[in-house]
Amino acid sequence: MTLVAGVDSSTQSCKVVVRDAETGRLVREGRASHPEGTEVDPAAWEAALRTAIEEAGGLADVAAVAVGGQQHGMVCLDSDGEVVRPALLWNDTRSAQAATDLTAELGGGQAWADAVGLVPVASFTVTKLRWLAEHEPENADRTAAVCLPHDWLTWRLAGGRRGGSEGGQQSLDGLVTDRGDASGTGYWSPFTGDYRTDLLERAFGGRAPVLPRVLGPAERAGAVSAGAVAADGGAVLGPGTGDNAAAALGINAEPGDVVLSIGTSGVVSTVSTTPSADPTGTVAGFADATGNFLPLVVTLNAARVLDATARLLGVDHDELSRLALTAPAGSGGLVLVPYLEGERTPDKPHATGALHGLTLSTADPAHLARAAVEGLLCGLADGLEAIAAQGNPVRRVLLVGGGARSEAVRRLAPAVLGVPVLVPPPGEYVADGAARQAAWVLAGGDAPPVWPATSTQTYQADPVPFVRERYAEVREMTADRV
């Protein structure tokens, strides 16, 4: 049996799965936590990866490895390969003004959408680089190369060196990435498949640091180096990809499939054969990990809305779900606009949450629980609508992520979204997608190996459009205050 490993280096943790390359059967797995915050020393990711690999039984018998990682994170390296400063993560909003400035400088959203398929918001790497150049010029001057979290971990697995002349520019030239992750930087074009170094230079004070080479979907990135992150070397390295592209690969998403992922962020994405360019910035025109495209909408507020509401009510998630299902549709007019961490879609990085419609009859735990679930789902429904408006047919909707474990989320989703929802069993779909890519790199060919599809449970409900109408009313009512 040939084994492959997939890594998911997410915001909150690192997961490693080891699977049979031919059948996709899970053989073993491991995980480790990441520190909290919106900026993290990449060394913490490396330490977590080492722990997760050890917990998963090591890589001695693994033939290939690929890394899926959180997108947009800014990892800056100096000429010796040392990390210049803690990486700014996708959910760091300090570059909001930089996003506004960059959009205006190029002539607005249409110009950016035509150039790179997206419009700058604080999440994207290009805005973080502008922030760095403006606020930490000494660190910007030290920066010889810029990469993303999955790029850096792949480089370290391959033995990317630090320090001295042997670890300098030649080592930085070994950085690699893929289309899926590169498309979330703001300086790579899904239309041409090339970096837009002019946009990078615009953001970074007129110069372009070294960027990772963009590999093809099944192109080898080298091999795991003995003594690097893993104790056992020799496994072939896949190019890896961003977490959203890896999840689509892990769940076997095909053109017309819409994946709704409720994790730290909320993601609505669909596999498309054509690139997208939305001048409003609502839909980001990313690429996927197979050669297709992955237009998507991302919200900052997702599963942690459920965490916060459960904490507020002093209940666990099961009780939160039970409470929500006892309240009426629409929560009696109580609406939660859940911008608890600012928001990316719509672009309100400094927003706060808003609760509206509190009356004597709605001032109880059940109504608040229902309002939290409905508010979360309404944001995703807006994303689904925006994806469809870009000319992407919706064949089926797949609900995944930690938030999909909530019975209330599963049962209320089809009513709010207005379409039936398929829920696969809980799984590590980002890590699974990375493992599937690793198997593809080993096997070669034009398409990833076909692994048996996971069984799904279908949830159906009559649409309740008044829930979204009421949510939209409150969202606009509070727009100037959140």
Commentary on this structure:
This protein has 482 residues and is of the alpha/beta class. The chain is 35% helix and 19% strand. It is built from 16 helices and 21 strands. The chain has helices at 42-55, 96-106, 109-116, 125-135, 137-142, 149-157, 169-172, 179-182, 197-203, 243-250, 303-313, 317-326, 365-389, 407-417, 429-443, 465-477, and strands spanning 3-9, 13-20, 26-33, 39-40, 62-69, 75-77, 87-88, 145-147, 176-178, 213-215, 236-237, 241-242, 257-262, 266-270, 284-287, 293-299, 335-337, 354-356, 396-400, 421-423, 457-459. Strands 1, 2, 3, 5, 11 and 12 form a six-stranded mixed β-sheet that branches. A five-stranded mixed β-sheet has the order 15-16-14-13-19, sandwiched between helices. A two-stranded antiparallel ribbon has the order 4-7. β1 and β2 form a beta hairpin. α12 crosses α13 (365-389) and α12 (317-326) packs across α14 (407-417). It is globular and about 65 Å long. Residues 162-170 have low confidence and may be disordered.
Q: Can you count the beta strands? A: 21
* Unreliable segments of 5+ consecutive residues: 162-170
Q: Note the beta-strand portion.
A: 15-25%
Amino- and carboxy-terminal Cα gap: 55 Å
How does the helix and strand content classify structurally?
Answer: alpha/beta
Using the CA coordinates, give the radius of gyration.
22 Å
Helix count? 16
- Major beta sheet summary: 6 strands, mixed
Residue share in helices? 25-40%
- Average residue-wise pLDDT: 94
What is the 3D shape? globular
